[in-house]
Amino acid sequence: MSAQIYILDTNVISDIIKKHSSIIEQIRIKQSTNILCLTQPVEFEILRGLFRKKAMRQLLYYQTQIRPKFQCLALTDADWQLATHGTTILNSNDFQISMDKHFQVNYQLKAPLSPPAPLSPLRGERGRNPF
Question: Against a cut of 0.85, is the pTM above it?
Fold first, then answer.
């Protein structure tokens, strides 16, 4: 089985910084056979929170011990559009999702999935000016 890519959210990184052993163990297990990534918004939230709290030791720990262990993905507009479309599907009645005790997500699509319509760069989804 090929490696899967997991994008970690802010809460997971926060738990790692706080040294929650169960989360650290789950990350260690997942990372042994998969690719674990951060995104720019997650990194922004982590850094903003640590600077706001003036938590310089935690900031140093994040920058030297945690951050180097993960790839950072630069998301494109197409990624955000796909994520928005996916979230809409997840929140609809056409999709069934569950999570087991090991945080493995199981899903089943009840109907065929159509790709999202491309957005105009200057107009909103229905042609309205977004400004």
Answer: no
